[in-house]
Amino acid sequence: MAAQPVTVLITGANRGLGLEMVKQMVEGKCLVKKLFACCRDPNGPKAEALQALAKKHPNVHIIRLDAADLGSIKQCSQQVGAQVGTGGLNLLINNAGYLDKSTLQNTTTEGMQTTLNTNLMGPMYMTQEFLPHLRAAVKASKIPGMSTRKAAVVSITSFLGSMQLVKDSYSFFPAISYRISKAGLNMLTVCAAEELKKDEILFSLLHPGWVRTDMGGEEGEIDAPESVTGMLSVMESLTEKQNAAFLDYKGKTLPW
Ligand SMILES: NC(=O)c1ccc[n+]([C@@H]2O[C@H](COP(=O)([O-])OP(=O)(O)OC[C@H]3O[C@@H](n4cnc5c(N)ncnc54)[C@H](OP(=O)(O)O)[C@@H]3O)[C@@H](O)[C@H]2O)c1
Question: 15 CA distance to ligand 1 centroid (A)?
Answer without folding.
Answer: 8
